[in-house]
Design goal:
Bound molecules: 5-bromanyl-1,3-benzothiazol-2-amine
Radius of gyration: 24 Å
Number of strands: 9
Structural class: alpha/beta
Order of helices and strands: EHEEEHHEHEHEHHEEHHH
Largest sheet: 5 strands, parallel
Shape: elongated
Helix content: 25-40%
Strand order of the largest sheet: 2-1-6-5-7
Strand content: 5-15%
Number of helices: 10
Length: 276
């Protein structure tokens, strides 16, 4: 997968070179490029923002540097070449054609987008080319967002109901969630299927040695060697914990069996079982 990120703080994204994602880049599973938006400005001060038409607080990111940066990503041209050109994009012809089917996906982190989740991470992990446009200030001139929809599958995307100072951290969150789903990035793929959110339930609690620590004992059933009983205990715990902490997730579940239902009914009637 190819991932491009555009930001006025490219150093911010340096953390992505560490750990698992850095390894994936080294192994060639992931082709990650971070672009400095200021490389696509002409003036002495490398201006990327200006005051908003119609008034209001703060500054707005100018359209042209964004268009040049995105055209650079589409066409694979150097910022120097892009500067010297008429600013038209010649479709996706010749070398500009992305490896996969259709347009590259342009993700624009924004509190106004739909909320990113594991399902979207899975969908995006199948893409050939993702581009992240990290806005700052009050946001990006709407015209270049509208323009970009001709060349990209445009996806405004929030990571939750809070406001950040820019799209960088949101992009890093999404890049980490997506890239760990690319085959080969995670050493043990089994750990992927056992995770929270993978099947819509929160995780069961986990323990390691010693069996007794500061007067706290590991639940007895985990020492029993009865794998069937352990699996049932873990599932019951997951159902109860999800009902308690994230009832919104339960509403999305469709593959509950009779036992699952009875565990939830018991929990809802106030008769908790597994967790004590
Ligand atoms: C922000 Br400025 C800016 C750009 C993107 C995002 S995503 C989020 N939650 N807040 C703020």
């Amino acid at each position: 997968m190819k991932i491009d990120v555009v930001s006025i703080f490219p150093e911010y994204l340096a953390g992505l070179q560490l750990s698992l994602i850095g390894k994936a880049v080294d192994q060639g599973l992931l082709d990650l490029s971070v672009h400095d938006l200021r490389d696509f400005t002409f003036d002495r001060h490398n201006t990327v923002d200006d005051s908003p038409y119609g008034g209001g607080a703060g500054m707005v990111m100018k359209a042209e540097p964004w268009a040049l940066a995105l055209e650079h990503i589409l066409g694979g041209k150097s910022p120097e070449t892009v500067r010297g050109e008429e600013h038209t994009v010649s479709g996706n012809s010749a070398e500009g054609e992305p490896a996969g089917n259709g347009k590259p996906i342009l993700i624009v982190p924004s509190p106004a987008g739909p909320v990113f989740n594991q399902r979207i991470a899975e969908e995006l992990s199948n893409a050939d080319h993702l581009v992240f446009a990290c806005g700052r200030y009050e946001g990006i001139d709407q015209r270049v967002i509208d323009w970009s929809a001709q060349h990209f599958d445009l996806r405004p995307m929030s990571i939750g109901d809070y406001v950040l100072n820019g799209g960088e951290v949101a992009s890093m969150v999404m890049i980490e969630a997506v890239s760990r789903l690319i085959p080969g990035v995670i050493g043990n793929p089994e750990s992927l299927t056992e995770e929270s959110h993978e099947d819509g339930l929160l995780e069961y609690p986990i323990y390691t040695k010693p069996a007794s620590w500061r007067d706290r004992d590991v639940p007895e059933i985990l020492l029993s060697g009865n794998h069937g009983a352990i699996a049932r205990w873990r599932r019951d715990w997951r159902l109860e914990r999800t009902a308690e902490i994230r009832p919104d997730l339960l509403a999305e579940l469709h593959d509950l069996d009779k036992h699952d239902r009875s565990v939830l009914d018991r929990f809802e009637s106030g008769d908790e079982s597994v967790k004590e």
